[in-house]
Fold Nucleoid-associated bacterial family protein.
Amino acid sequence: MDIYVKKAIIHSFDPGQPEINFSTSLMELSPLLLDYVTKKVEKVYSDDAKRGTLSEDNQFLLNINDDFIKSSEKVANFWREEFVLSEAQKMNDLLFVEFEKDTHLHFAFIRMSLRESFAHIDDEGNIKIRKTEKNLPGAGSAADESIVINLDTKEYHLIEKRIKYNGKNYNYFSENLLAEKPDISINHAIRAIKKTAQAVAKDMNKDDFMFSSKIQNAVFNSIEEKQALDPEELANQFFSDNLTARLNFQENVKESIPETLKFSEVPTERMEKKLSNQKLSLSNGIELMVPQSLYDDADSVEFIQNEDGTYSILIKNIEEIKNKW
Protein backbone atom coordinates (compact mmCIF):
# COMPACT_ATOMS: atom_id res chain seq x y z
CA MET A 1 0.00 0.00 0.00
CA ASP A 2 1.58 3.28 -1.18
CA ILE A 3 0.76 6.09 1.25
CA TYR A 4 2.47 9.46 1.02
CA VAL A 5 2.03 11.39 4.28
CA LYS A 6 2.03 15.14 3.67
CA LYS A 7 1.00 16.56 7.04
CA ALA A 8 0.24 15.35 10.54
CA ILE A 9 -0.78 16.96 13.80
CA ILE A 10 -1.70 15.57 17.20
CA HIS A 11 -4.08 17.03 19.79
CA SER A 12 -4.74 15.86 23.35
CA PHE A 13 -8.08 15.01 24.97
CA ASP A 14 -8.27 14.86 28.76
CA PRO A 15 -11.75 14.02 30.10
CA GLY A 16 -10.96 16.11 33.19
CA GLN A 17 -10.45 19.26 31.13
CA PRO A 18 -13.23 21.38 29.58
CA GLU A 19 -11.48 21.72 26.22
CA ILE A 20 -9.12 19.82 23.95
CA ASN A 21 -5.47 20.77 24.20
CA PHE A 22 -4.73 21.81 20.62
CA SER A 23 -1.28 21.74 19.07
CA THR A 24 -0.39 24.92 17.20
CA SER A 25 2.06 23.42 14.72
CA LEU A 26 2.44 20.36 12.54
CA MET A 27 4.45 17.34 13.63
CA GLU A 28 8.06 17.18 12.50
CA LEU A 29 8.01 13.92 10.61
CA SER A 30 11.37 12.32 11.26
CA PRO A 31 11.83 8.92 9.56
CA LEU A 32 10.82 7.21 12.83
CA LEU A 33 7.65 9.29 13.28
CA LEU A 34 6.80 9.06 9.58
CA ASP A 35 6.92 5.28 9.81
CA TYR A 36 4.70 5.36 12.92
CA VAL A 37 2.09 7.63 11.35
CA THR A 38 2.07 5.67 8.07
CA LYS A 39 1.49 2.37 9.87
CA LYS A 40 -1.36 3.88 11.86
CA VAL A 41 -3.05 4.97 8.65
CA GLU A 42 -2.48 1.58 6.99
CA LYS A 43 -4.22 -0.15 9.90
CA VAL A 44 -7.49 1.60 8.99
CA TYR A 45 -7.58 -0.32 5.70
CA SER A 46 -8.40 -3.65 7.31
CA ASP A 47 -11.02 -6.39 7.14
CA ASP A 48 -12.48 -4.90 10.33
CA ALA A 49 -13.24 -1.57 8.61
CA LYS A 50 -16.75 -0.45 7.78
CA ARG A 51 -17.08 1.45 4.52
CA GLY A 52 -19.36 3.93 2.83
CA THR A 53 -19.58 7.21 0.94
CA LEU A 54 -20.40 10.59 2.51
CA SER A 55 -22.74 13.06 0.85
CA GLU A 56 -21.38 16.50 -0.05
CA ASP A 57 -23.46 18.13 2.70
CA ASN A 58 -22.50 15.65 5.42
CA GLN A 59 -21.93 17.56 8.67
CA PHE A 60 -18.75 15.66 9.55
CA LEU A 61 -17.32 16.28 6.09
CA LEU A 62 -18.16 20.01 6.23
CA ASN A 63 -15.61 20.40 9.04
CA ILE A 64 -12.80 19.56 6.60
CA ASN A 65 -11.39 22.23 4.28
CA ASP A 66 -8.09 23.32 2.75
CA ASP A 67 -6.76 24.54 6.12
CA PHE A 68 -5.50 21.26 7.60
CA ILE A 69 -4.84 22.52 11.14
CA LYS A 70 -8.20 24.31 11.40
CA SER A 71 -9.91 21.22 9.97
CA SER A 72 -8.31 19.03 12.61
CA GLU A 73 -9.54 21.37 15.36
CA LYS A 74 -13.08 21.46 13.99
CA VAL A 75 -13.26 17.67 13.67
CA ALA A 76 -11.79 17.23 17.17
CA ASN A 77 -14.41 19.51 18.70
CA PHE A 78 -17.18 17.87 16.67
CA TRP A 79 -16.01 14.47 17.91
CA ARG A 80 -15.71 15.62 21.54
CA GLU A 81 -19.35 16.73 21.69
CA GLU A 82 -20.42 13.11 21.24
CA PHE A 83 -17.59 11.27 22.96
CA VAL A 84 -17.97 13.15 26.28
CA LEU A 85 -21.26 11.29 26.78
CA SER A 86 -19.31 8.06 27.25
CA GLU A 87 -19.42 6.57 30.74
CA ALA A 88 -15.83 5.29 30.49
CA GLN A 89 -13.61 8.09 29.23
CA LYS A 90 -9.83 7.95 29.10
CA MET A 91 -7.07 10.26 28.02
CA ASN A 92 -6.64 10.12 24.25
CA ASP A 93 -4.32 11.58 21.67
CA LEU A 94 -6.06 12.60 18.46
CA LEU A 95 -3.88 12.11 15.42
CA PHE A 96 -4.83 13.85 12.18
CA VAL A 97 -3.11 13.04 8.91
CA GLU A 98 -3.28 14.43 5.40
CA PHE A 99 -1.91 11.97 2.85
CA GLU A 100 -2.04 10.91 -0.77
CA LYS A 101 -2.97 7.44 -1.94
CA ASP A 102 -3.38 6.50 -5.59
CA THR A 103 -3.09 10.22 -6.48
CA HIS A 104 -6.13 11.02 -4.27
CA LEU A 105 -5.93 13.34 -1.27
CA HIS A 106 -7.12 11.76 2.00
CA PHE A 107 -7.91 12.99 5.50
CA ALA A 108 -7.50 10.71 8.52
CA PHE A 109 -8.65 11.03 12.13
CA ILE A 110 -7.14 8.46 14.48
CA ARG A 111 -8.02 8.23 18.18
CA MET A 112 -5.41 6.55 20.35
CA SER A 113 -6.16 5.79 23.99
CA LEU A 114 -3.11 6.52 26.17
CA ARG A 115 -1.84 3.72 28.34
CA GLU A 116 0.01 3.23 31.59
CA SER A 117 3.20 1.23 31.28
CA PHE A 118 6.42 0.40 33.10
CA ALA A 119 9.69 1.92 31.95
CA HIS A 120 13.36 1.31 32.58
CA ILE A 121 14.88 4.45 34.17
CA ASP A 122 18.66 4.83 34.51
CA ASP A 123 19.19 7.47 37.21
CA GLU A 124 22.98 8.00 37.25
CA GLY A 125 23.71 4.31 37.39
CA ASN A 126 20.78 3.49 39.65
CA ILE A 127 18.41 1.48 37.49
CA LYS A 128 14.75 1.77 38.46
CA ILE A 129 11.43 0.58 37.10
CA ARG A 130 8.71 3.22 37.15
CA LYS A 131 5.16 3.39 35.97
CA THR A 132 4.73 5.95 33.22
CA GLU A 133 1.51 7.46 31.91
CA LYS A 134 0.42 8.89 28.58
CA ASN A 135 2.09 6.15 26.53
CA LEU A 136 1.02 5.80 22.90
CA PRO A 137 0.20 2.34 21.52
CA GLY A 138 2.83 0.65 19.38
CA ALA A 139 3.07 1.23 15.64
CA GLY A 140 1.82 -2.27 14.86
CA SER A 141 -1.38 -2.04 16.92
CA ALA A 142 -4.67 -0.83 15.52
CA ALA A 143 -6.01 2.53 16.70
CA ASP A 144 -8.90 2.57 19.15
CA GLU A 145 -10.97 4.41 16.58
CA SER A 146 -10.24 5.89 13.18
CA ILE A 147 -11.66 7.14 9.92
CA VAL A 148 -10.00 7.78 6.57
CA ILE A 149 -11.84 9.84 3.97
CA ASN A 150 -10.96 10.09 0.30
CA LEU A 151 -11.54 13.82 -0.24
CA ASP A 152 -12.09 13.33 -3.97
CA THR A 153 -14.62 10.49 -3.93
CA LYS A 154 -15.89 11.00 -0.33
CA GLU A 155 -15.50 7.26 0.29
CA TYR A 156 -14.46 6.35 3.80
CA HIS A 157 -13.06 3.51 5.88
CA LEU A 158 -14.12 3.45 9.53
CA ILE A 159 -12.93 1.57 12.59
CA GLU A 160 -15.34 2.38 15.41
CA LYS A 161 -15.99 1.35 18.98
CA ARG A 162 -19.26 1.67 20.80
CA ILE A 163 -19.62 3.93 23.82
CA LYS A 164 -21.84 3.27 26.82
CA TYR A 165 -24.37 5.94 27.74
CA ASN A 166 -27.33 5.56 30.13
CA GLY A 167 -26.60 1.84 30.33
CA LYS A 168 -26.80 1.29 26.57
CA ASN A 169 -24.11 0.85 23.91
CA TYR A 170 -24.04 3.11 20.87
CA ASN A 171 -22.11 3.18 17.61
CA TYR A 172 -21.84 6.90 18.20
CA PHE A 173 -19.33 7.53 15.40
CA SER A 174 -21.39 6.23 12.50
CA GLU A 175 -24.80 7.00 14.02
CA ASN A 176 -24.18 10.48 15.43
CA LEU A 177 -20.99 11.90 13.92
CA LEU A 178 -21.41 10.60 10.38
CA ALA A 179 -25.19 10.06 10.56
CA GLU A 180 -24.59 7.16 8.16
CA LYS A 181 -25.13 3.43 8.08
CA PRO A 182 -21.93 2.07 6.54
CA ASP A 183 -21.43 -1.35 5.00
CA ILE A 184 -20.43 -3.90 7.59
CA SER A 185 -16.84 -5.10 7.67
CA ILE A 186 -15.60 -8.22 5.90
CA ASN A 187 -15.26 -10.02 9.24
CA HIS A 188 -18.81 -9.22 10.30
CA ALA A 189 -20.16 -10.11 6.87
CA ILE A 190 -18.55 -13.55 6.96
CA ARG A 191 -19.87 -14.20 10.46
CA ALA A 192 -23.37 -13.14 9.39
CA ILE A 193 -23.25 -15.43 6.33
CA LYS A 194 -22.03 -18.40 8.35
CA LYS A 195 -24.56 -17.91 11.15
CA THR A 196 -27.50 -17.46 8.77
CA ALA A 197 -26.56 -20.39 6.52
CA GLN A 198 -26.12 -22.72 9.49
CA ALA A 199 -29.48 -21.66 10.95
CA VAL A 200 -31.25 -22.43 7.67
CA ALA A 201 -29.40 -25.75 7.35
CA LYS A 202 -30.33 -26.66 10.92
CA ASP A 203 -34.00 -26.38 10.05
CA MET A 204 -33.29 -28.90 7.28
CA ASN A 205 -31.22 -31.15 9.60
CA LYS A 206 -28.16 -30.60 7.39
CA ASP A 207 -25.93 -28.52 9.68
CA ASP A 208 -23.07 -31.05 9.82
CA PHE A 209 -19.33 -30.54 9.29
CA MET A 210 -19.71 -31.13 5.55
CA PHE A 211 -22.05 -28.16 5.27
CA SER A 212 -19.78 -25.94 7.39
CA SER A 213 -16.91 -26.85 5.08
CA LYS A 214 -19.09 -25.99 2.09
CA ILE A 215 -19.75 -22.52 3.54
CA GLN A 216 -16.06 -21.88 4.12
CA ASN A 217 -15.12 -23.05 0.64
CA ALA A 218 -17.74 -20.85 -1.06
CA VAL A 219 -16.78 -17.76 0.96
CA PHE A 220 -13.08 -18.34 0.31
CA ASN A 221 -13.61 -18.62 -3.47
CA SER A 222 -15.79 -15.49 -3.54
CA ILE A 223 -13.18 -13.41 -1.73
CA GLU A 224 -10.23 -14.80 -3.67
CA GLU A 225 -11.76 -14.68 -7.15
CA LYS A 226 -14.25 -11.81 -7.03
CA GLN A 227 -13.23 -9.65 -4.06
CA ALA A 228 -16.91 -9.59 -3.12
CA LEU A 229 -19.70 -11.44 -1.32
CA ASP A 230 -22.97 -11.84 -3.22
CA PRO A 231 -25.77 -13.26 -0.99
CA GLU A 232 -27.77 -14.57 -3.95
CA GLU A 233 -24.78 -16.32 -5.48
CA LEU A 234 -23.80 -17.83 -2.14
CA ALA A 235 -27.37 -19.02 -1.55
CA ASN A 236 -27.23 -20.88 -4.85
CA GLN A 237 -24.04 -22.63 -3.74
CA PHE A 238 -25.23 -23.45 -0.22
CA PHE A 239 -28.71 -24.71 -1.16
CA SER A 240 -28.55 -25.54 -4.86
CA ASP A 241 -31.33 -28.15 -4.62
CA ASN A 242 -33.72 -26.30 -2.30
CA LEU A 243 -35.46 -23.11 -3.48
CA THR A 244 -37.14 -22.48 -0.10
CA ALA A 245 -33.81 -22.63 1.72
CA ARG A 246 -32.22 -20.27 -0.82
CA LEU A 247 -34.96 -17.71 -0.35
CA ASN A 248 -34.87 -18.05 3.45
CA PHE A 249 -31.13 -17.48 3.49
CA GLN A 250 -31.34 -14.37 1.28
CA GLU A 251 -34.20 -12.92 3.32
CA ASN A 252 -32.51 -13.51 6.69
CA VAL A 253 -29.07 -12.23 5.66
CA LYS A 254 -30.51 -9.14 3.92
CA GLU A 255 -30.46 -7.02 7.08
CA SER A 256 -26.67 -7.39 7.37
CA ILE A 257 -25.83 -7.59 3.67
CA PRO A 258 -28.64 -6.01 1.61
CA GLU A 259 -26.72 -6.35 -1.66
CA THR A 260 -23.38 -7.50 -3.06
CA LEU A 261 -20.58 -6.42 -0.72
CA LYS A 262 -17.44 -5.37 -2.61
CA PHE A 263 -14.05 -5.06 -0.97
CA SER A 264 -12.62 -1.98 -2.62
CA GLU A 265 -9.36 -0.80 -1.04
CA VAL A 266 -9.52 -3.49 1.65
CA PRO A 267 -6.61 -5.95 1.82
CA THR A 268 -8.08 -9.45 1.94
CA GLU A 269 -4.83 -11.38 2.30
CA ARG A 270 -5.32 -12.03 6.04
CA MET A 271 -8.88 -13.29 5.56
CA GLU A 272 -7.92 -15.43 2.56
CA LYS A 273 -5.11 -16.99 4.59
CA LYS A 274 -7.51 -17.70 7.45
CA LEU A 275 -10.01 -19.38 5.11
CA SER A 276 -7.48 -21.16 2.89
CA ASN A 277 -7.41 -24.32 5.02
CA GLN A 278 -10.24 -26.49 6.32
CA LYS A 279 -9.44 -27.22 9.98
CA LEU A 280 -11.20 -30.34 11.26
CA SER A 281 -11.29 -31.50 14.87
CA LEU A 282 -12.28 -35.16 15.19
CA SER A 283 -14.01 -36.78 18.16
CA ASN A 284 -11.05 -39.12 18.73
CA GLY A 285 -8.66 -36.20 19.29
CA ILE A 286 -7.13 -36.11 15.82
CA GLU A 287 -6.98 -32.74 14.11
CA LEU A 288 -6.62 -32.25 10.37
CA MET A 289 -5.80 -29.20 8.25
CA VAL A 290 -6.72 -29.65 4.59
CA PRO A 291 -5.94 -26.95 1.97
CA GLN A 292 -8.99 -25.69 0.09
CA SER A 293 -7.35 -26.74 -3.19
CA LEU A 294 -7.39 -30.38 -2.05
CA TYR A 295 -10.56 -30.51 0.02
CA ASP A 296 -12.84 -31.40 -2.90
CA ASP A 297 -10.20 -33.39 -4.76
CA ALA A 298 -11.26 -37.05 -4.55
CA ASP A 299 -7.75 -38.14 -5.54
CA SER A 300 -6.33 -36.49 -2.42
CA VAL A 301 -8.89 -36.86 0.35
CA GLU A 302 -12.21 -38.65 0.65
CA PHE A 303 -14.87 -38.37 3.37
CA ILE A 304 -16.93 -41.52 3.81
CA GLN A 305 -20.08 -41.81 5.90
CA ASN A 306 -20.39 -45.31 7.29
CA GLU A 307 -23.66 -47.22 7.72
CA ASP A 308 -23.54 -46.74 11.49
CA GLY A 309 -23.45 -42.95 11.09
CA THR A 310 -19.71 -42.57 11.79
CA TYR A 311 -17.24 -41.07 9.34
CA SER A 312 -14.03 -42.32 7.81
CA ILE A 313 -11.46 -40.06 6.16
CA LEU A 314 -9.23 -41.51 3.47
CA ILE A 315 -6.07 -39.56 2.60
CA LYS A 316 -4.54 -40.69 -0.68
CA ASN A 317 -1.37 -40.55 -2.78
CA ILE A 318 0.99 -39.39 -0.01
CA GLU A 319 4.59 -39.35 -1.22
CA GLU A 320 6.25 -38.26 2.01
CA ILE A 321 5.31 -37.77 5.67
CA LYS A 322 7.21 -35.47 8.04
CA ASN A 323 6.87 -35.11 11.79
CA LYS A 324 6.61 -31.41 12.71
CA TRP A 325 7.02 -30.55 16.39
Summary: The mean pLDDT is 86. DSSP finds nine helices and 16 strands in the chain. The two ends are 35 Å apart (CA to CA).
